[in-house]
């Protein structure tokens, strides 16, 4: 959205937690974040959430810059849109800046990479589609050109090195390069858009232009073209009579006399002799045995025999051409010069004849090679193993024009008299040769379909293998889970048994403790009973003792009472004599003051008398009386 846009008037009053739209898939849910929540999160917290974030409400300028930088750190290609001047930094920071040209400012348009004239998001989608289409078209052109270049270069190199002649001459290579560069670029670079390209995942920035799938098609198509190129160039002349070449020895055997005779002069005169030397004397054909026989014309020369005898040589015909033709001497002679001229002429004639015969092979090779490129140009439109090689072929006008022009020009190059032999060094082909070469070229479709189908089958097998691995892993995981559950169940049961055993042990211990407690209680009760019996016995003994003491006390008291009654009786007996007694007491006291013993006895008598009076007269009465 544009800078400063808001979706909620109260969104800045409080922070809202991330919300997740409702989804029925098993994949992680998408996220809607508030700008305040986004700002409050650290970078390491945001990175795992980036693939799931879809909306950041109330995002500030700094929030957008942060989001762009985080996405770029993850290797993503970021596209930013903007219209006002404040969006300029966003447009510059993003990998691709898109400005709204109609409603945007000049500052935003200058900072952007792309300007949308109608301010429509659909135009951005069209731009992405055209970008992907351009990339696919370039890749298709590279597949087409690299395949043709690799095949032509390899075929030309090995043909020149191994075969001794060029499979394709300069003008043929020029026509091939014109087809590959100019017409191929015109055909493949002008292909229209395909909506299915939008269904493909984005291409990483670091991804190479030539992908592994492209390398696969380049390698297989090049191998197919090289197979037929080598087979036609090396195999047909060797294994078929129609394209066979005249060997040098056969040419010498059949054409030597005629060709040497065409030289005229001394060569024409000595043609029969020279051809015999060439074929029988080992110059260049023949061997030592034939040379030393009558078949060699030099064997019967007298000069050679004389020279051999002079040199004491066991061979009459020397192995060196100079000595053989010049009388056994190394000095060159006219016959030697004539022989060398004849040999050179024969070699040139056999080479010329083979070149003429080889034109049938090279013409067939050129035709098959061009038709292979013609078919590969159609296959190169699909670089992602699509099976739709011919889909929408009729809608590509330039491609159809290029295909028609290529076929017509190829037919003209081969079948036009004068043009074919003088410039392109080709010969007219028969209808069966045309069918053979076109069939080889159209076999490119079969190879391409086979590669694509095998790739699809391989992917299905890989998917099945992966599915089996995943199923095996899932089964193993399920078995592991079952094993763990069984272990947990066994552990749970063991724990339950252990708990039951512990409970039983505790119960038995408690019963033992209870029995021990009962025993101790019984012992304590017995001890208490014994103690109680002892206490009772002691109490009874004490009671008996107390009763005995009480009885003794009572007896003492009774005795005291009896004593007291006796004393009272004594006092009562003395009461009648109270006056006399008082006087006597006084007299006794007075007298006792003089005699202590008498005084003590008098005091005791007075006390007894007083006690008797108290018993008879209570204190109140005595007081009353005294009062």
From TrEMBL:
Ranges for domain Cation-transporting P-type ATPase C-terminal: 166-262, 357-448
UniProt keyword list: Magnesium, Membrane, Metal-binding, Transmembrane, Transmembrane helix
TM spans (from-to): 142-162, 174-193, 213-236, 397-414, 434-451
Disordered, as annotated region: 1-28, 547-627
Compositional bias segments (type: Low complexity): 601-611
Signal peptide extent: none
Subcellular location: Endomembrane system
Sequence ranges of Basic and acidic residues compositional bias: 547-572
GO cellular component: endomembrane system; plasma membrane
Protein's UniProt keywords contain Repressor: no
Membrane topology reported for the UniProt record: Multi-pass membrane protein
InterPro entries: ATPase_P-typ_cation-transptr_C, ATPase_P-typ_TM_dom_sf, HAD-like_sf
Subcellular location, principal: membrane
Keyword Transmembrane helix tagged: yes
Superkingdom of source: Eukaryota
GO MF: metal ion binding; P-type calcium transporter activity
Bias-annotated ranges (Polar residues): 578-587
Name this polypeptide is given: Cation-transporting P-type ATPase C-terminal domain-containing protein
Organism this protein belongs to: Polytomella parva
